[in-house]
Design brief:
Layout: E1 39-44, E2 50-56, E3 65-68, E4 74-77, E5 98-104, H1 111-114, E6 116-121, E7 127-128, E8 133-135, E9 140-142, E10 152-153, E11 158-162, H2 163-166, E12 175-181, E13 187-194, E14 202-205, E15 210-213, E16 242-244, E17 258-267, E18 276-279, E19 284-287, E20 301-311, E21 314-318, E22 325-329, E23 337-338, E24 352-363, E25 366-370, E26 375-379, E27 396-406, E28 409-413, E29 420-422, E30 430-431, E31 434-435, H3 442-465
Parallel strand pairs: 16-17, 19-21, 23-24, 26-28
Antiparallel strand pairs: 1-2, 3-4, 5-6, 5-14, 6-11, 7-10, 8-9, 8-12, 12-13, 14-15, 17-18, 17-20, 18-19, 20-21, 20-22, 24-25, 24-27, 25-26, 27-28, 27-29, 30-31
Length: about 475
């Protein structure tokens, strides 16, 4: 991606001191952010290369800031602190025990006087409904203490929302979807109904599903006529339509979309995370369902369907059902992209790449290479079982791996020991006498067990001789 026409350009000479913050105030008309549906903030360098990206989803509550907490996790905060250390209030969670329990779309007489929606607290604890909201897709109403003497809803009790309060006019004909949101903008319940031919009837919950009844009971337990036919209808939730998208265009789709795509396996499951594989090409992280028990190998060509989501800002497809994965071809040729170290960024996320550069930093399970175009971080995943080689600063290394994003950082994830090669063309981390001990995994503990047994037998033999 490139900066858009509305991008805000930082003034020449703008600097951020070490361990400090810079608040960038965006003028009106430039780089505006969405209040609903999610959005992303991107930072480009002077060469228009993307360096940082932070995205969020859903509806944003007014006055809240998206900020990093002390653990590095992005959360919503009700205390914005531009230019200063972030203040993160205690994370609030809301119960999911509220449901729509009854709706009267077309009452006798004037609709404006009798229409209502009813909310039922299925739990046992009281819930304050202030700042909760309901919507029919056209209009949203936020429950307020200005409209109700008491917004506290006890367990197993009802709250009735009349049209004269909410301003929401329900359809008398055609399908309509109602939604209930908590104060964080998270959807808690959805109800779909069609009131065609249902004058003076309420759509009500009977404990298992919904049915039309000629006995509306606002604020009380629902009743159903014994003389009229009662047909219970399961709650219906509209699910997104599946889109067929070629892999290189998948990043143009909205989060939450159900995507069908295809691609070649570049990393088999469990190497770079439990139940995780990667598809080659423009590339994407794929999360397999927990009950998937098939075997997948690099080079296999797959067709799969999943929900597009984000994992620490890295785009991924979450497959819901093992039947949504089909191997259509076996063992295609797997190619890597040779790039410069400075190209490890948003534009190459998900690619299987090879870079060569000199070692500039080395700490823990990470090291940094630079070929003069900019630094590239290499991270050794524990699940890959790679033995970190001994390296000297300035040493030339060639690394092959997946470009992955974690929060605002991009890094290369090697798959195997052979993905790290020295300047002399040798696999790094393997001694001249043979492979080094693995850092983790079954082989490591097998070697430890055999060595321990050998030492124990040697001790017994020594005792006998003495």
């Amino acid at each position: 991606p490139m900066p858009g026409s509305s991008a805000f350009l930082l003034a020449a000479g703008t600097k951020i001191s070490a361990k400090s913050h810079l608040a960038v105030m965006i003028p009106k008309g430039q780089a505006s952010l969405n209040n609903s549906g999610g959005d992303a903030v991107r930072l480009f360098d002077s060469n228009s290369a993307l360096r940082l990206k932070v995205s969020y989803e859903g509806t944003v509550k007014e006055g809240y800031a998206y900020a990093k907490d002390q653990t590095g996790k992005w959360v919503w905060s009700d205390q914005p602190t531009p230019g200063a250390l972030n203040i993160i209030a205690q994370i609030v969670s809301y119960p999911s025990t509220l449901i729509f329990s009854e709706v009267l779309p077309n009452p006798e007489g004037d609709d404006a006087e009798g229409e209502f929606m009813e909310i039922f607290n299925t739990g046992s604890d009281s819930i304050d409904l202030a700042d909760w909201s309901v919507s029919d897709g056209r209009r949203k109403y936020q429950i307020s203490e200005d409209d109700f003497l008491d917004t506290e809803l006890a367990g197993q009790k009802y709250l009735v929302l009349y049209r004269e309060v909410t301003g929401i006019s329900l359809n008398n004909t055609g399908e309509e979807q109602l939604e209930l949101y908590n104060p964080l903008g998270e959807k808690v319940d959805t109800l779909v109904l069609d009131a065609s031919g249902k004058e003076a009837e309420a759509y009500a919950w009977d404990g298992q599903g919904f049915a039309w009844t000629e006995k509306p009971t606002p604020g009380a337990k629902n009743k159903f006529s014994s003389t009229s036919e009662k047909k219970t209808v399961e709650k219906k939730i509209i699910t997104p339509q599946t889109k067929t998208v070629i892999l290189k265009n998948i990043r143009e789709q909205e989060l939450g979309s159900v995507i069908k795509t295809s691609g070649t396996v570049s990393v088999e499951p469990d190497v770079l995370g439990e139940g995780v594989l990667y598809l080659a090409g423009s590339g994407i992280r794929v999360v397999l369902p927990k009950n998937f028990d098939g075997t997948l190998e690099p080079g296999q060509f797959l067709e799969l369907t999943g929900v597009l989501s984000s994992f620490h800002n890295e785009l991924q497809l979450k497959v819901q059902n093992p039947a949504d994965i089909t191997v259509t071809e076996d063992l295609r040729e797997l190619n890597t992209h040779e790039i410069k170290t400075g190209d490890v960024a948003e534009a190459t996320e998900g690619f299987l790449v090879t870079v060569s550069g000199n070692l500039t930093e080395n700490a823990g399970d990470n090291f940094v290479l630079d070929d003069g175009s900019g630094p590239a971080k290499v991270h050794l995943m524990e699940s890959a079982g790679i033995n970190k080689p001994k390296m000297k600063k300035g040493e030339l290394l060639t690394v092959t791996g997946l470009v992955s994003q974690y929060d605002e950082n991009f890094r290369i994830l090697p798959r195997y020991q052979s993905d790290i090669v020295t300047g002399q063309g040798q696999v790094a981390g393997i001694s001249a006498g043979g492979p080094s001990l693995p850092r983790t995994g079954t082989d490591f503990w097998l070697i430890v067990a055999v060595f321990s047994g050998f030492c124990y037998n040697l001790l017994l033999l020594t005792r006998k001789e003495s």
